[in-house]
Amino acid sequence: MLKIFRTKSIADMVVNSEKTELTRSLTYIDLIFMGVGVIVGTGIFVFTGIGAAQFAGPALMLSFVISGVTCAFAALAYAELASMVPIAGSAYTYTYAVLGELVAWIVGWALVLEYSIAAAAVASGWSQYVVSIFGTFLFAIPEYLQKTPADGGTINLPAVLLVLILTFILYRGTKESAKITRILVIIKLAVVFVFIALAAPYIKVANWDPFMPFGMKGVITGASFAFFAYLGFDLIANASEECKNPKRDLPIGILGSLVVVTILYIVVTAIMTGVLPYSQLNTGAPITTVLDSIGYRFGSALLGCGIIFGLTAVVLVLLYSQTRLFLAMARDGLLPVSIAQIHPKYKSPSLLTAITGVLIAFVVGFVQLEVLAELVNIGTLFAFIAASVGVLILRIKNPEFHRPFKCPFPYVIMPLAILSCGFLVINLRKETWQFFIVWVVIGLIIYFGYGRQHSKIGNKE
Question: Among positive and negative, which fits the CA dihedral 121, 72, 418, 108?
Fold first, then answer.
C-alpha cells in the first residue's frame, strides 16, 4: 500500500529536464508575457464589475490586494520549486518529488480543473463578446449557434472554433504560439491603458462612499472569488523545459507577471467604481458599460475588440499548460505513454495537443459552464497548498539541494501561504466542495484502475 506514496528523485528529474525533446526558445520576457497574457483576462474585463456590485463595492480594491498577497506567498513557492526542478508539470511534478505518487496524481487531477475548465469558461466569455460585436457591426449570429443545449441553443460555435484554431497554433510548436501570445498581450494591455486614459478624468470621489458597503465579510468573499482573476502565474512553470535559462527566467516570469497584474487590477477597479456607482456595474462587460456611460461609444467598441484579443491569449496559454501537464503525467505512466509523442518537425506534443483541444472544444460547445467555473478556484488553491508544503518539506529533508532562487523566510511565508489559501478554500461555496469531492473520486478511480499499474516508477521496483 505504501507504494502509492513512492516519490521521484529530484536529481534524476533535473538530469531528465536537460535531455528534453522540446525546443528551448522562451526567455523571461516571453514568460512574463505568458503570465500577463493569461492573468489579465476575465478577471479585469468581467469580474471587476460583478465583484464590485455583488460582493465588495469599491472595496474590491482591497479584495484584489488580499488575493494578490495570497498569490504572492504561493508564487514564491513556485519560484523556488521551478528553479530547482525545471521540468513540465508544475505543482504535479513538484508534489511527485516530495509527497509521493498518489498525492501528485490528486494535485494533477485538480490542476485539470484549473486549466481545462478555465479554458472552456474563458472561451465561453470570449464568445459572448464576439456575438455582441458581430450583432452590432456585421450580422446577428443565430441564437442556436451561440448557446449550449442547457442554455436553449444547439452549440456554442464561436467558442468551439476559437479552441480548435488555437489548438492548431499550439500543434505547430511553442515558438510560433509565443509570438502570437506577445502580439495578443500587447493589444490587451493597450486596451487596458486606453480605458485608464479615457475614464480616469471622470472619476467622482463621491462614488467611493460607502467604500465598504458589504462590510469586511464582503471584502473577504470578494477576495475568494477574485482569486480566479489571478489564475495564471503558476502556469508559467509548465514552460520549464522550453526556457533558454529556466533557473533564472522562471522566478522572474512568475513574480514579475504577478506584480504587473496586481497593479492593473487595483487601478482599473478604482477607476470603474469611481466613474459609476458600484451598483451599476453588475454586468459581464463592465469596461464597455463605463465607457458608454461617459459617451465613448466608439471607444467602447474598440475596447470590446481588444478584449476579444485579450481573452484569446488567456485560452491559448491555458491550452498550452493543459497539454504540458498531460505530457508530464503520460511520461510517468499515469496516463497512456503513447499519447506523449513529440512531433519530429514541430517539437510539440502533437497528439496530446489535438486530444486536449478536441475535448475542451466539446465541453465549451455543449456543456453549461457557470456551475463549473468556481471549481477552478478550488483546484488552484489545492495545488498552491501542495507546492507550499513541498517547499517546507524539502527545506527540512534536503537543505543541500541547489536552489537558484530561494524563498525568503520560508518558515514564515510558506505557513502563511498554506493558511491564506486554506482560508480562501473554506470561504468557497458548499456546492463547490461537493463537485470537487466527486471530481477527486473520479480521479482516484482512474489512478487505481490504470495509473497505479502502469506507473514507470512502480515498474522499476
Answer: positive
**Calpha distance 146→375 (Å, rounded):** 23
Q: Which three cell numbers stand for residue 290?
A: 463605463
Q: 365-411, pLDDT tens digit by residue? A: 887 766 566 677 788 788 888 889 988 998 888 888 888 888 888 89
Q: Does an H or E element contain 431, and which?
A: helix 430-446
User: Within 10 A of 150 (CB to CB), how many other CB atoms are there?
Assistant: 12
- pTM higher than 0.70: yes
DSSP of 104-166, one letter per residue? HHHHHHHHHIIIIIHHHHHHHHHHHHHHHHIIIII-PPPGGGBS-GGGTSS-BHHHHHHHHHH
Q: Which has the minimum average pLDDT: 20-34, 109-123, 242-256, 404-418?
A: 20-34
What is the spatial distance between Cα 266 and Cα 259, in angstroms, rounded to a whole number?
Answer: 11
Q: Round to whole Å and give the CA distance between 114 and 4.
A: 24
Degrees, nearest 5: CA angle 114-119-121: 95
